[in-house]
Write a structure and sequence with these properties.
heterodimer; A: Microbial ribonuclease fold; three-stranded mixed sheet; three-stranded antiparallel sheet; 6 strands; B: mainly beta; Methylamine Dehydrogenase, Chain H; four-stranded antiparallel sheet; 1 helix; 26 strands; binds zinc ion
């Protein structure tokens, strides 16, 4: 398994409603990974329309901040 | 002049009447007769300038087609401004339209909005969320995501960033310029891939272009390319080409009146069903005159 690219989480788009991070794929669709996958230590974002994958570069604290904010809101 | 399209057809961006991918060239629908001046495309939309009028197809979810709605065939883009369009380029989800008056417009959810005015416009280049505007007075302007110019904020109006520039190209997180002195320079801010920074020693360069993470120029009648090559997107040989165009991760060229493609082919944009092409692959279209490569999508203009 090889990655198409490595992408910093700050460069991805976060959708707080769906709790999902996305980044454009060269096919036109978007690589995606959920906040909860990242919280579990998963770092591979996949594209639903092709076989390419990216490796997400992130600090666990960055994700913990977001999951804690949701826990507080609930 | 006819236009053929093949490859990834997400949201109907090929303009061939469906949303199905095609690995063979198909005549696009909805374009009037006339001289095609420019083709530009984003992630899921395509625009064509014919006789000064803008046509588009694909996704309009962000207003990138001026609010005309998603469409699988080409339709006239509502650009109701009494000014002549001279150049168009596309970010991932937007469209930058430049007019004869020097005014620059960006597509938004509520129609085209003027974001600045420069002296007369020579060319624009866009990638993802940043846009570059080059004037005939060799001044370079920027609009959009500020990371490529070392700013953390979004620029909401056109800002001058350099002078004495004669050509430009936009990559995913960088841009490239050729100065009046003939020197090619890579932008220094943001996340520029190290493979792109590594500029080979080349003589006189022309026909500057960039994919997401690679740069292409013509030098001594050959294409010289450098950058990331994970999907074989760099130009594969020493052939001299009549014209070429590079998309997100593939390229198209014309050699001896034949059209060829190279690079990533998962969506059939190189004209066959192999995932990756080995070298140049022939796309059979008779009398190709110009090529344009987009996001895994290929467009060929023919007589
Ligand atoms: Zn994809």
């Amino acid at each position: 398994m090889s990655f198409y690219d490595e992408i910093e989480i700050e460069d991805m788009t976060y959708d707080p409603d769906l709790q999902i991070f996305t980044y454009p794929c060269p096919c036109g669709d978007k690589f995606q990974i959920t906040l909860w996958d990242l919280a579990d230590g998963e770092d591979t974002a996949v594209c639903p329309s092709c076989s390419l994958m990216i490796q997400v570069i992130f600090e666990p604290e960055y994700i913990a901040e977001k999951t804690q904010a949701i826990a507080v809101a609930v | 002049m006819r236009m053929y399209a093949l490859g990834s057809n997400s949201c109907g961006k090929l303009g061939i009447g469906t949303e199905e991918d095609s690995n063979q060239p198909v005549l696009v629908q909805g374009l009037p007769e006339g001289v095609i001046q420019l083709v530009a495309s984003g992630g899921n939309h395509t625009v064509v300038l014919i006789n000064g009028v803008l046509y588009g197809c694909g996704a309009d979810d962000c207003g990138q087609l001026g609010g005309m709605g998603n469409c699988v065939v080409f339709r006239r883009v509502p650009f109701d401004i009494a000014d002549q369009i001279v150049y168009v380029s596309c970010g991932w989800e937007d469209t930058l339209v430049s007019c004869k008056s020097g005014k620059v417009y960006i597509s938004t959810n509520i129609g085209f909005e003027c974001v600045g005015k420069v002296d007369s416009i020579k060319k624009t280049a866009s990638c993802m969320k940043h846009h570059l505007i080059l004037s005939h007075c060799s001044r370079l302007y920027h609009y959009g995501n500020g990371k490529v110019i070392g700013s953390n904020s979004e620029k909401s109006s056109v800002t001058e960033i350099a002078q004495h520039i004669v050509d430009i190209a936009a990559g995913r997180s960088f841009y490239v310029t050729i100065g009046k002195n003939g020197v090619l320079e890579i932008s220094q801010h943001g996340r520029v891939p190290k493979e792109v920074m590594n500029v080979p020693s080349i003589g006189d360069v022309s026909h500057l272009q960039a994919t997401w993470s690679a740069v292409f120029v013509e030098s001594n009648n050959k294409i010289v390319s450098w950058g990331k090559n994970v999907l074989d997107q760099l130009f594969p040989n020493d052939e001299s080409v009549e014209q070429f165009s590079v998309g997100s991760s593939h390229g198209l060229c014309i050699i001896n009146n034949q059209c060829y493609a190279w690079g990533w082919n998962e969506h059939g944009n190189c004209g066959n069903n192999e995932k990756q092409t080995n070298g140049l692959h022939l796309i059979s279209v008779s009398n190709p005159k110009a090529v344009f490569a987009g996001a895994a999508a290929s467009f060929i203009l023919a007589d």
